[in-house]
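Quiz preparation item.
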């Protein structure tokens, strides 16, 4: 097993100190209570762990620049539920729109599902206190598209945290922060905060077709009422989830996300037969979990 950020490891030292501290070898990894993972696009059936043992994922998306991609959010929400870990939705760059009304409509399904939504501006300072309170005393990982403002939020939450400065803009002379690897920062308010490089694509990993609906909280009140216990809510007749979409009790966009993700997933049987080492934490259904 390869260690991931957030792992609790057993470490054997030879007693030598170098510039990074005590030198030694990782000789074991404690069982993980959660992982945030996605498929690795460079490797068929491979995956990447963004962080282990996290209490919660803060999913950072910009209201614009890059455009708010809720279908990507839906994928990361599935990964967090699979983790299992809590998820908080952070919509950043609120200074670029006239007010919360511009985004609130699109977020209604998420608020209804019980997700905490924090509207922020790393530039102007909106929502930073609320975000800081949300992460205090917990181990959190920031995830979301590149350019959404994750690293800017980290430095706003706790000025002076180490940031990798990769480039300097020739016209302004100001540094551009680029996250080259994942670091876990210790917060003065207690807890840890991890920043991650942005993702353009986010493939759902280690979820079977059969389990996906359990990760869609908004399906929970309906999915046990389908005619077939094995209903995947796609092509089956008498599907309570599809009926709920027709009756506008489930948002059509969320349902579209579900179908798009479903198409990328293996079924339970082929997963069990798969030779790849999955090394995932214990499974838990994300359905109906309320914070
Ligand atoms: N207007 C505006 N720009 C922001 C905000 N937060 C970050 N940015 C800018 O967005 C760009 C990407 O920010 P960065 O923190 O590197 O995003 P990351 O890739 O998610 O870590 C930078 O040019 C930031 O200055 C914000 O709240 N408002
Ligand atoms: Mg960054
Ligand atoms: Zn169904």
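Solution:
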């Amino acid at each position: 097993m390869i260690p991931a950020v957030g792992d609790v490891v057993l470490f054997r030292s030879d007693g030598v100190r170098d510039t990074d501290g005590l030198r030694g070898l990782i000789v074991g990894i404690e069982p993980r209570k959660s992982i945030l993972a996605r498929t690795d696009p460079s490797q068929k059936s491979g995956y990447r762990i963004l962080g282990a043992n996290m209490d919660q994922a803060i999913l950072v998306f910009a209201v614009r620049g890059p455009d708010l991609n809720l279908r990507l959010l839906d994928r990361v929400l599935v990964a967090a539920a699979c983790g299992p870990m809590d998820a908080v939705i952070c919509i950043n760059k609120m200074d670029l729109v006239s007010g919360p009304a511009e985004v609130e409509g699109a977020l209604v399904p998420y608020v209804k599902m019980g997700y905490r939504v924090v509207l922020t501006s790393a530039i102007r300072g909106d929502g930073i206190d609320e975000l800081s309170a949300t992460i205090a005393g917990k181990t959190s990982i920031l995830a979301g598209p590149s350019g959404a403002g994750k690293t800017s939020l980290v430095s706003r939450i706790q000025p002076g945290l180490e940031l990798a400065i990769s480039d300097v803009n020739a016209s302004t002379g100001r540094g551009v922060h680029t996250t080259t690897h994942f670091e876990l920062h210790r917060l003065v308010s207690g807890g840890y905060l991890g920043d991650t490089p942005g993702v353009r694509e986010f493939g759902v990993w280690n979820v079977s077709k059969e389990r996906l609906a359990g990760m869609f909280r908004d399906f929970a009140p309906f999915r046990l009422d389908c005619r077939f216990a094995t209903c995947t809510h796609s092509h089956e007749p008498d599907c309570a989830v599809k009926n709920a979409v027709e009756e506008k009790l489930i948002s059509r966009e969320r349902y579209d996300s579900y179908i798009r993700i479903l198409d990328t997933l293996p079924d339970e049987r082929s997963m069990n037969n798969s030779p790849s080492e999955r090394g995932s934490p214990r499974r838990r259904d994300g359905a109906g979990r309320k914070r």
